[in-house]
Amino acid sequence: MTDSNDELGAKRPVGAAAPAHGTVRRRKSSATRKSLALGTIAAAGLTVAACDDAPSDQVFKSIADCKSSGFSAFVCEKEFNEARARHAKTAPQFKTSDACEQKFGNNKCMVHSVSTTSGTTQGTSNFYTPLLTGFLVSQALHRVRTPYAYYSYRSNYPGYYSTPIYRDRGGRSVTSVRSGTGASAKTITRPVNVNTRTVARRGFGGRSYSSRGWGG
Amino acid sequence: MKRITLAEREGWRDTAREVGFGFHEMYGEPYWTDDAAYAFTLQQIERDIEDPTQALHEMCLDLVADVIKSDETLARLSIPEAHRDLVRDSWMAGDRHIYGRFDFAYDGKSPAKLLEYNADTPTSIFESAFFQHNWLIDQIEAGQLPGDTDQFNYLQESLVEVFQRFPKDATFHFACWTESSEDKGTAAYLMDCAVQAGHRVQLIDIQRIGIDAQGRFTDTDDRTIDQCFKLYPWEDMLREPFAKHLKPGCFVEPAWKAVLSNKAFLPLLWDRHQGHPNILPAYFEDDPRAGDLDHVVLKPFFSREGDNVTIRRAGTIVEESDGSYGGTPRIVQAFAPLFQDGDKHAVLGSWVVGDRACGLGMREDSSLITRDLSRFVPHIIVD
Do B191 and A192 touch (CB under 8 A)? Predict the structure, then answer.
């Protein structure tokens, strides 16, 4: 991700410039003059008795796995197809299968052939990406049971997208993030939310508690 | 500036419950006020609240940049020695922040006076961003307010916009004291904003955060926490067993906010901007200049919700609140009168989201010291 204050010395956190106001009277509230709506998260917050019961985002190897976890068939198919399409666009790419396998393991890579035209010469070039080992589905979609609800959800949350998951040589789940734009765009992978083993809890939250919480 | 009354909306309590605002009442006492509002002119909002908020926020960021260079000043701010590097590194890394709320005394006539900056765990974001917006729409529809009545409130869209700037590959965890319905409701609302911005989110109780053998924070599924919003204060986290595992870039609000979410920065701000119309004279209690002020408010550095605040005039205590911060270091700030209507005293909560002043939330109390039973009142812009 590019950040607007990358230079050493420019220590300003990222922000937005204040809109200038002129003499013309302007609206000081949200552009839409209708009620704000809450999505599934806030509504789900009401019905979830304990946070531990809340279903978390899940990674599935297949549509069948996804369905057997209680998501609707429609959601599983849509999410899988989108993750696969996204995989084709954003998976880390390598020039040789060796380079790819070094990172992702033996037999864990696939070849893609692309036709190229150079002047009057036609040919193909190959690049390699890791195999798609899974796709991640948001817990919010657990409540979505119909195509209509799914499309409503997607249009309410336009920033959401289905995430392809790869497993690297060390067994860690990674996903792909595109950094930068245009010709210099790079795909970087970082391990996210890796599976691990907790050795201790309750290291925060032990200080004196006022019944209203820690508000200020 | 004035306080008006109007009819409450029919069935508003049911609506509140439906949207997760079960905390519209606290301990059986009303909190959300549906049948009153503070009315401002557009000029009052823009000239006296929005612009000063923006300017003060910039001054506060400059202050942080300055303060982190001095170990002595960080010590003066009660930042534990072991974690001063964390605060410093968090700033140097440009750790992103989401929001903060300035509290002002303002009566519509004189410049607004900064009382404090809740830069780490400001409350009432749900009421300010969401519930008071829908109140406005409903009251216009009910004919209680003219059709072109406005409100200083871009909060929800600003929150979604600022969440968009955070990386989307890792889950955005949200940690709070889940036994508090107010904290959980607030977390749910912010999670909703994060989802609208394209994030996957997960709630976790602050006490359930774990660590693995490498000192990485973990959730209840035994997966690492890479990015976590917290409704829990830095001054507590920095003094707890897991503090040694803290690194820049994990928690929001970031560690550098610890410089501002602490009333001790107010004397530092006064020192740098003496005579500024929006800043009150303020000194550390042991500073001899504190004696120059006649009518003052003494506030412990970390006091919340008006705990252990003392108002003193000509050496006599006028009003005093109790709490759990007795005996802790204090600042002395010049007294500024609050807007008053009958027995109601009003404090303005002016929000900054991602460096932009973008909304106002009003609270009122029958006491001069705004406490946890103070009530939230919506506002309108009329002229």
Answer: no
